[in-house]
Amino acid sequence: MPLPQSSPVCVAKPSHYASPVKFETKYEPASTPTSSGKPDKDRRHKKKQHHSSGKKRSGTPLSLKEQIVQLIAILLTAAVVYNVTLTAIGWFEEARRPFCDDQQDPLRDNCRPCPENGICRGGELRCIPGFRRQGALCVPDKQIDRNAQNLADFVLNKVCKISGDSLCRNEDISWIPEHQIWDASEEEKMGLDAENVLLVHEKALQLVRDKLNIRIDDFGLREFRCPIALALTYQPIGCRIRKLIKANIYGIFIASFIVIFVSVYILRYLQSRRLVTRAEELYMQVCEVLEERSTGSSGETKWVVASRLRDHLLLPSERKVATLWKEVERLVQEDSRIDQYPKLVNGDSRVVWEWQGEGTLRTPNKDSKR
């Protein structure tokens, strides 16, 4: 619903002088039938206060202290920008300046002095082998040291392995010429160029000088040999075992004899124990069969042919062990309850066993349980 608007009202103001009557226009707010216009008035009143306060703040001058702080901040920012600009310009100008040759003067010829461990020709800088360029300086190349250490390990292993093989063949350790040590393939793996090969060789020799024996031959060439104590550790495993056996052959023979003797004794003892245990089991079965026959309840004879009972109780593999049934026969002979005598069976003389004991059989196992 649109809000009611105020209508202009003209009011005539009297004047004390003889002048035309002045009219002033006043706006009278229209009456609002409802209270919905109050929030609009509050918002307009707050907006006016906000604009008036903003005008007051913008028009208020800064204090002397605030002006000094702003001035200092502006000066510091300008100084920093000026210094950074000068530094960048100086760095670019310095980088564009050529390096001085041997006959040039830095002040007179406006060039940069040649750094230590560097060679300057035609305004360009080139570092000597073993150093690399870093800006306007030549610093030691750590890759050269790593390559020298790797090459020193390679030389040490190669010389000592050759010496170890000589000791394994019971030969004297020979001197190895220098040209037989260096390996071109190993140098290619390290990525060495022609300028750094000699430097890496010299550093590698300095590293192995304390571990290898080095001498100069009649032609002025270096020769290398591995010390005996160090060469022994580079012998092959098979060679070490052969030498160990050869040096202790008598002790190994005696120890082997003792081990074999003890092993045979233990095996025989275990075998005899198994045989005795099995013979006792068969003996108990024989007693049970004879005791059952003695009652006559099954209608069979009271005696049993010993050979037939043997074939009935023994396994096929046990029949080849003659000592097993002999042990059973010995136990039967020692038992007073079993009678053993020859008897003619089917026209053949056979040894028969017959139970003569009274009462039931009491086996050792049953007695122990009771």
Automatic annotation (TrEMBL):
Residues 97-357 form the Man1/Src1-like C-terminal domain. GO terms for cellular component: nuclear inner membrane; nuclear periphery. The keyword Amino-acid biosynthesis does not apply. Residues 22-60 are annotated as: Disordered. Residues 43-58 have a biased composition (Basic residues). Keywords: Membrane, Nucleus, Phosphoprotein, Transmembrane, Transmembrane helix. The keyword Transport does not apply. Gene3D superfamilies: MAN1, winged-helix domain. The chain crosses the membrane at residues 71-92, 249-270. Pfam families: MSC (PF09402). It is found in: Nucleus inner membrane. PANTHER family: INNER NUCLEAR MEMBRANE PROTEIN HEH2-RELATED, LEM DOMAIN-CONTAINING PROTEIN 2. This is Man1/Src1-like C-terminal domain-containing protein. It comes from Physcomitrium patens (Spreading-leaved earth moss). The lineage of its organism: Eukaryota, Viridiplantae, Streptophyta, Embryophyta, Bryophyta.
